[in-house]
Amino acid sequence: MFFQKKEKMSTFSRQDQLPSLPVPSLVETLEKYIDSASALVTPEEKKRIEKEAHDFQHSDLGNQLQSALENRAKNHKNWLEDWWYNVYTEIREPLAPFVSFGALNTVYNCVDGGQVSRAADVLYHWLSVWDKIRHGKWPVTSSRGVTWDMDQFHHLFSSNRTPQKPRDTMDRYFKTKEEGETPTHVIICCNGCFWKLNILNEDDDTIKTSDELYNMLKFVRDNSPDESVGCVSKLTTTHRDVWTTNRDELLRVCDPNMVALKAVETSILFMSLVPKNGGNDQKKLISNALQDESWFVWQDKSVSITVYEDAQVMVQGDHSNIDAIVLLQVGDYAASRVRKQLWHPQKTGSDAHFEFPERLSFELNEHLKHAISQADVDFYKSKQLYRARPVHFHGYGNDLCRTAKVYTDTVVQLALQLAFLKTHGSFAPIYETASTRKFFHGRTETVRGCTQQFVRFAKALTEDQKTEKEDLKKLFDAAINAHNQFMADCMDGRGFDRHLMGLKQTLTIMNKGCGPKRAAPAFLTDDTWKRTGGDGNFLLSTSFIGYMDNEVPGAMGYVAAMRPDGYGCFYRIGKRRITFSVSDWAASRSNIDAFCGNILWALDALSPFLTPAQKL
């Protein structure tokens, strides 16, 4: 789906050359919505949706909203950008598990006594990416010969989602060398104690070596008493309005709190050294990747890294600020370079020369102490709300699909829908991420993969009556082609979900004026709207997060399912295998164990159709 091509251009040199995000035509969007919804509604409901959409298309309101959105696009190179971030920052639920992205990496091995050496290596390689981005030397991402937007790499470090009412703010402090001064410190949390580490050498503006970082981290570990019970990071795990109130109280208590809080929020990244083993149990690891202990992660940061006593590593980030693929790319880069054995720098004793870290302290009053205790209780309750599982399929991968001239990603999408059908006996509205990073500051569009062509294929494959193999193959090809066409349209900025969101936002703005209030179009309030996925009501929330190197899964991460009764499915593709990270919400009609088993069944069921007859 993507790759990085090393060119002489600097990281952000092509930004101004990227095209603006287009506004699709109203008629095209409505036709695509009707076609998509038709796979999940009755013939009578389809007729009603068609009439409602047709009425809106030819109404004064439809023309006014479309014209207003097109005018906005003339004045904004990305008309969606601000609204898209607002959708995230208006969410008031705790970031974990409702928004954040968590990941483990199978490249990491456990090493007894290796916590500090592993942390030093991990930190060094993450900082080397920071340094490359800072100097414009991180390679520009491209896909199929097209340059992609790199703005999210500018957002990756020194960013913070700051709690505010009624909507949080995204505060970004990173600057390239050309732009000016940027924060040059990281925060290390050990046993609940906070330390500020300057990571640059003052004399030559280079990042400190792994050896220097080792000595600094060892000093932190040796001088951090257990203060985890009252650790301030627990406050970041709460409801956003609660955290807003407590953050204001933290700032009110004393001025040093403001200095310490600013150090955390502007830091390049947040790293925890924790007094427990991570282990190698992937099922346990993948669950803990999103929530382990309440003080391990400063939830507002875009990059939080947890290093366990046995050198296991987890990465977590705020999904509001960046797409998961950006975090995983950098995580894979670091993991592939980290040493897998225990090591020590040449000088580790009293003769070792290193810059001493600065201890940060927060003064707490009784209100804040009680708030931290309550945050602890709520955190461990929320850990019981969801489940997560790894799934490894070894039947085939990209090699077989390339021979058959089909995209493996499309095969996986069909398999996930078949797995849901077998598990629940019904078809599911499904979301797949399509990147729009070929456009200026583009992020994603929604591919609604449950097409009429897929429904016809799935029914023929699973129903009792026998369908000739050649006819099944034709239905399979039609489902593949329909999905591929919609993916191409979405990546070209011609999907329909973001356009409909823009029309709704435009209507909201219009209704804030002095004129008469306008009712939303009927098809957006019809009960079929949410049933087919509208407003994020997708039973399957899925994303392809990259290809494997050397058949090693590498980063395995996920965000929680979008619906209480749905599933989240992130997957990586190897030459001869496919790996999934699957999540669901407990105490609902979802059945994660059955669904995961049916993913394997579905991939096997599709293998007979992977013949050379299909053309891309």
TrEMBL record:
Superkingdom in the source lineage: Eukaryota
Active-site annotation: H319
Cross-referenced InterPro entries: Carn_acyl_trans, CAT-like_dom_sf, Cho/carn_acyl_trans, Cho/carn_acyl_trans_2
Choline/carnitine acyltransferase domain boundaries: 21-598
GO CC aspect terms: peroxisome
Keyword tags: Acyltransferase, Transferase
GO MF term list: carnitine O-octanoyltransferase activity
Pfam families: Carn_acyltransf (PF00755)
Family of this protein: Belongs to the carnitine/choline acetyltransferase family.
Protein name in the entry: Carn_acyltransf domain-containing protein
